[in-house]
Amino acid sequence: MDARDEAGTPRIPGSSPAGDHLPGIPEGIGAPEETGTSGGTRGSLGADHARVPELLEATRAYAVRLLGGLDDRPVARAPVRPAPAPLPEAGIGLEGAMEEFAKRWEPGFAAGAGPRYLGFVTGGVTPAALAGDWLTGTLDQNPTSGLDSLAPDLEREAVAWLRDLFGLPSEHEGTFVSGATMSTFAGLAIAREWLGERRGVSVAEEGVAALGPVTVLSGSPHSSVVKSLSMLGLGRSAIRRVGLLPGREAVDVARLAEELDRLDGAPAIVVANSGTVNTVDFDDLRAIAALREHHPFWLHVDAAFGAFAALSPGHAHLVAGLGEADSVCVDLHKWLNVPYDSAIQFTRRRDLQTRVFRNSAAYLGPVGDDPDFVHLTPENSRRLRALPAWFTLAAYGREGHAEIVRRDVALAAGLGERIAAMPAYRLLAPVRLNVVCFTLTGSPSPARIDEVVDAITASGEAFLTPTVHEGVPALRAAFSNWRTTEADVERVAKILQEVASRP
Ligand SMILES: Cc1ncc(COP(=O)(O)O)c(C=O)c1O
Question: If you take atom 14 of ligand 1, which residue's CA is the nearest one?
C-alpha cells in the first residue's frame, strides 16, 4: 500500500510517478523563458486569469485524486525536507506551481484527514465542509463587519445551529475563532474583565496591572489554558491545580470547594474540563456550577471535543450543565470534521467581550447592541470560517453528525477491547468516549514507547501520539474522523500487535 516510485519516493496510489506531469496538465508549462514578461504570457497572472475554468478543473482533478488515495496513503511521514528553493523571480503559473508542489511537498504530507490518523485529536473533512472551504476562498468574504455583505449573518446562523447542536441556552452567544486555544484565550480574556468588574476596575482600560493577583483553579487543564494565561498577562503561575478524584482526571469537587473557601470571598476563575486529552474524563459541571451559590467565580469550560458527547444519547450526561458555564470553548476542526482552522467561543457576557475586543475606527461605526465580529475576538479581518461549518451542518444535519460521533465512540471502544485482550499492552483508563489511552505491559521507558510510536508511523498504517499518564509513558489513539470504520480498527490492531512483538 505504500506506493513508491523506482527511486523510493513515496507517492499516492493512482498518482503519476514523481517527475511526471499531472494528468490534465500539459508538459512544458512554466518553462522559465515562457514566464513573467507580460500579461498573457504563459506562466503569468494574465495567462492564468484567461484560463481559470481549465486550471480549476485541473486542480479539482488533482484534489479528487488526493482524496481517492487518502485511505491508502501512508498515514504519517517522518520529515525529509526537500532542498530549499529560492524565491522565484519569474513565476511559473498555477500549473507549474501545482507540479512543483506535487513533486517537492505533497509526497511528504500526512494523511491527516484520513481514517487511521489517530494522533492528537484530529478530525477529517466531510465532503460538504470541503466544498464550503473551497467556496470560502472563492468568495473571499471578510465577515468582520456587516457593512457590505450577508456573510456575518451566515456566521450568526452557523453559531445558532452550533449552540443548538451542543444544547446551549440562547443566552450563550458565539463567535468563530481559529482553534480551541484562541477560544479559551478569548473566554479567559472575558473572565479577566469580569474579575475587574468585581474589583471595580476595567482591565481593558487600565491594564492588567490594575487587577492584582488572580487565581485560576482547575483539575486537569489543557496546556492551552496555561498558554492563554501567559498571553493574557495573568501569568502561567496563576493556575492552581485542584485535587482529582481517585484514579481519575476529573476534578474532586469537594477539593475545589475547599480551595474556593480558602479564597475567602475573593472572585476567581474556574476552568472545568469536559474531555481531558489523555483519558477523556469529564468534570461534574452541574456540581461545579452549584458552587457559585457560595463562591464568586467565572466558570470557563474547555469542551474542545468533549462537547460532542451531547450528540450521543449514552454520553450526553457527561456534559450536563455545559450551558451553565460563563464561557465555553469548542473546537470544530476536531469532531465537526471541518478543515483547519475553526473553533467557536461561546459566552453569556457579550457586554464584557465587547469591552475587551472592541475596535474603534471612524469607518467601523458604533459598536451597537449586536456588535460586528470585529469587536468580539482578537482578529479584525479574517476568513469566513463559518462557511465550512454551515455547509456540513446543512448537508448532514444533527443526525449525520451524531452518527459520526456514535460511530467513533463505538470504534474507540472496539479498539480498547482488542488492546485489553493483547498480552503486550494494558489500558491505562476505561475508554469513556473516543480516546484509547494504553501502554506496554511491564514498566516501559519513554524510549521504548517512542520506538513503538516510530514503528507504527514507519509502517504507514496508522499514526498515534505518545503521552505520559500519571507518570507512565503511554500511547493514545483518538477517534474523531468521519471516515474511520471497523476495517480501520482491525488494521490498527494488527499493526499494534506486530510492532509490540518486535525486539
Ligand atoms: C481539551 C483540549 N483543549 C484545547 C485544545 C487546543 O486546541 P487547538 O490546538 O485547536 O488550539 C485541545 C487540542 O487537542 C484539546 O484537546
Answer: 121
